[in-house]
Design goal:
The protein is of the alpha/beta class and 362 residues long. It has one domain (2-238, 321-352): TIM Barrel, CATH 3.20.20.30. It contains twelve helices and 13 strands. It has a nine-stranded parallel sheet. Strands 6-7 form a two-stranded antiparallel ribbon. Helix 1 packs across helix 2 (55-63) and helix 6 (187-195) runs parallel beside helix 7 (206-222).
Length: 362
């Protein structure tokens, strides 16, 4: 198992753009030093709690101060870019990072992000995403083409001796791609399986995650690909401290608790997603509070407790997966406990899990 960060970010609205930017870059440095394998940066233009409209700026800054960790957006919202612009930009970044760049893509789900770009109907966003990917992949091949699509037109001219066209191929010749999914039978997870992309599942319940494993595997098989759980990223919250009580307190009274209390839980309840969190408990959806999450949903506790919770979780899933991604929260004013938790996860928990705990389950 590998460990990464999904820097959404979940920072409160009063944080300035400078604070959000500095935190996102500094967290990449912490993750790199702790031994994390990848660091993903979210993208939203209008959301107060997820205020990074340009993940490539964070990635470019982090590229200069990290050494090993892979960096990428999760995800660029493809309907809101001309695909040729994004393709050339991403390929350029992949060369700057010399193989440490990977690209997450998504159709965009928030109406306000769409309306900002003059789009009022999100029903075509998936089709726009698919056409955008087709155009980007043609550009990355580096071969001349002309394309007239439903949403965009693009071409890569041949050039001549006096005016050669710059090579548009990404580092290594191919672009590593990823897609996120949350809902059961997720179309994004299915699309990822069919196209050989890495799936990133936002955890809501064991049954939903197992369903994502199945959807990805089946879509990959239908496309003649091998899609096992080693390709899978799973996003879940973790907080580790010296004792269970201290970890619970730091989670609930810190940035994690505030983000869920003021932003995430109201969203989950509004969209009917909170009920899944009660799976395996005797609680109802009305009982889903931050305190419930700390005791039944987040993975919180001492090193020993967190290791035991991981072992139990993987056993319930019937096997493991490739990479755990943890969200990042607002611990800007007192980062030490949060950064110590990150380091303990990578250095004290995961290496001490049983060797076969994260073997891919077929």
């Amino acid at each position: 198992m590998e460990v990464g960060v999904f820097q959404t970010p979940f920072l409160p609205p009063e944080r300035t753009p400078e604070q959000v930017f500095d935190w996102a870059v500094n967290q990449a440095v912490v993750a790199d030093k702790a031994g994390y394998s990848e660091y993903w940066v979210g993208e939203h233009a209008t959301l107060n709690w997820e205020a990074i409209p340009s993940p490539e700026l964070v990635i470019a800054a982090a590229a200069r101060v990290t050494e090993r960790i892979k960096l990428g957006p999760l995800a660029h919202l493809l309907p809101y870019y001309h695909p040729a612009t994004l393709a050339t930009q991403a390929a350029w970044l992949s060369h700057i990072l010399k193989g440490r760049y990977q690209m997450g893509v998504a159709p965009g789900a928030y109406p306000t992000d769409a309306k900002l770009r003059g789009l009022t109907d999100l029903k075509k966003n998936h089709l726009m995403m698919q056409e955008s990917v087709r155009i980007m992949e043609m550009i990355w091949k580096g071969e001349p083409f002309d394309y007239e699509g439903e949403f965009w037109s693009a071409s890569l001219p041949e050039g001549d001796a006096a005016h050669p066209i710059r090579d548009q191929k990404p580092w290594g010749g191919t672009m590593p791609m990823a897609m996120t999914g949350l809902s059961p039978n997720s179309p994004s997870i299915r699309y990822a399986g069919a196209h050989g992309y890495s799936p990133a599942s936002v955890y809501s319940s064991n049954s939903a995650l197992i369903d994502h494993f199945r959807v990805y595997r089946e879509a990959a098989a239908e496309a003649g690909r091998h899609g096992d759980r080693t390709m899978h990223r799973v996003v879940r919250d973790v907080f580790i401290a010296d004792t269970d009580a201290e970890a619970r307190k730091l989670a609930l009274e810190g940035g994690m608790g505030r983000a869920w209390r003021e932003y995430l839980l109201p969203t989950y309840h509004a969209f009917g997603l909170a009920e899944a969190m009660t799976e395996g408990t005797d609680y109802s959806v009305s009982d889903v509070t931050p305190e419930f999450l700390a005791d039944h949903f987040w993975i919180v506790g001492s090193v020993e407790t967190v290791r035991e919770k991981f072992e139990s979780w993987i056993d319930q899933l019937g096997g493991g997966f490739g990479t755990l991604l943890t969200y990042s929260y607002d611990y800007i004013d007192n980062p030490t406990p949060w950064e110590e938790s990150m380091t303990r996860l990578a250095r004290e928990v995961v290496p001490n899990l049983p060797v076969d705990a994260f073997a891919a389950a077929e």
